[in-house]
């Protein structure tokens, strides 16, 4: 006899960062309740790679229409950054992995968080390479959302929006972008930030959140000594308060790296012929890589 199909969950996202899960209720029986036909159920989130029991979140599943159960993960429930695998548990039975059903993520597209100083909550459900349901969670405050990127042979010009600070215009006054080298944490290249007025009138009324910067690849190449150098980009205020990692989070794409790709272009370096280009990390943070230029074939 073949194994039963894994339970499937539909998912709806809201613009505040909350998620709603709907799945079919199991038939009454030992796995779903007591002998009188009552059942208990929970949606279980487990942070991948953690053995800490505190890294598990249980959400009650309650009836919602005929034959359906619903669990809600509000944006107000803290979910530390990371990848969370999604299970369903009926009564005392061992939790089972869920697989993705229908996903309504329209509210995440071009999401515009409202004014607040609380951390920005982002949760994006996705299918793993094994076909299971998982969530990618971020909790950022302040947050610098990367927008349009324009790389060319001289460097990278990037646009972005600042979120989760009390006065974005004041925060951006005198701000800089720091490129921090992973190979040598004390190695930092700093470039100025320009505050911009958005063309969209609705965004302009929100007040001074837009910025841009240009990072010269030559500044990074001057420190390159072969191999791969990765430079992480941070938006830093002039007063020395907490910086914001430049990242792209406010859409429905859980893993940006394979979707948003940018050219890797030749760059002059004293050590050897090199190439440079921007990319999104596994955490959807913006970085620039410099590495050796492959030899020309022929």
Please, could you describe this protein's structure?
- The protein is 5% helix and 45% strand.
- It is built from three helices and 22 strands.
- It has helices spanning 168-172, 201-206, 217-221, and strands at residues 8-13, 19-24, 41-47, 56-60, 62-63, 68-73, 82-90, 96-97, 99-104, 120-127, 133-140, 143-151, 155-163, 176-181, 188-192, 194-196, 210-216, 229-236, 244-247, 265-267, 274-280, 286-292.
- Strands 12, 13, 14, 15, 16, 17, 18, 19, 20, 21 and 22 form an eleven-stranded mixed sheet that branches. Strands 3, 4, 7, 8, 10 and 11 form a six-stranded antiparallel sheet that branches.
- It is globular.
Give a short synopsis of this structure.
It is built from three helices and 22 strands. It is mainly β and 298 residues long. The model is unreliable at 30-38 (pLDDT under 50).
Q: Summarize model confidence as the mean pLDDT.
A: 90
Number of helices: 3
User: How far is the first residue's CA from the last residue's CA?
Assistant: 59 Å
Major sheet: size, sense and barrel closure? 11 strands, mixed
Strand content: 35-45%
Using the CA coordinates, give the radius of gyration.
23 Å
Shape label: globular
Going by helix content, strand content and strand pairing, the class is mainly beta
Sketch the topology as an H/E string, one letter per element: EEEEEEEEEEEEEHEEEHEHEEEEE
Query: Which spans of ≥5 residues are poorly predicted at pLDDT below 50?
Result: 30-38
Number of strands: 22
**Percent helix range:** under 10%
